[in-house]
Amino acid sequence: MKTLTLTEYLKQDKCRMPKVLLNKKQYKIAQTYNHRGELRHRVYVITKNKILSGIEYCLIGKSFYTTDTDGNPKNRSVFFVE
């Protein structure tokens, strides 16, 4: 599957679980913490898309995860960093 930019992702037709590469200017780290030796970050995607900009993610390694109501990682999202 092709890797998309954030702009391409927001403009694309429905595509199940594409890979979306974010650069450092496209996400904000709100908090960093250590969980059992694993560095985790609470992050938000910086975009004018009101739905996407309000979602909190957990960045572990290079992958973004959706979070549960307590902020714990739940499911891998389409977003990643290099």
Short description:
The chain is mainly beta and 82 residues long. Helices cover 12% and strands 49% of the residues. A seven-stranded mixed sheet has the order 1-2-7-6-5-4-3.
Topology overview:
Blueprint (H helix, E strand, L loop, with lengths): L2 E2 L1 H6 L7 E3 L5 E9 L2 E8 L4 H4 L2 E5 L2 E5 L5 E8 L2
Parallel strand pairs: 1-2, 2-7
Antiparallel strand pairs: 3-4, 4-5, 5-6, 6-7
Report on this model:
It contains 2 helices and 7 strands. The chain has helices spanning about 5-10, 50-55, and strands at about 5, 20, 25-35, 40-45, 55-60, 65, 75-80. Strands 1-2-7-6-5-4-3 form a 7-stranded mixed sheet. A hairpin with a 2-residue loop joins strand 5 and strand 6. The model has no long low-confidence stretch (mean pLDDT about 95).
- Number of separate structural domains: 1
Strand content: over 45%
Distance between the termini: 17 Å
- What would you call the structural class? mainly beta
> In terms of per-residue confidence, which ranges show pLDDT below 50 for 5 or more consecutive residues?
none
Biggest β-sheet: strands ordered side by side in the sheet: 1-2-7-6-5-4-3
Mean of pLDDT = 93
User: What is the helical fraction, as a range of percent?
Assistant: 10-25%
How many DSSP-defined strands?
7
Query: Main sheet?
Result: 7 strands, mixed
SSE topology string = EHEEEHEEE
Question: How many alpha or pi helices?
Answer: 2
Radius of gyration: 13 Å
What would the principal axes of the Cα set say about the shape?
Answer: globular
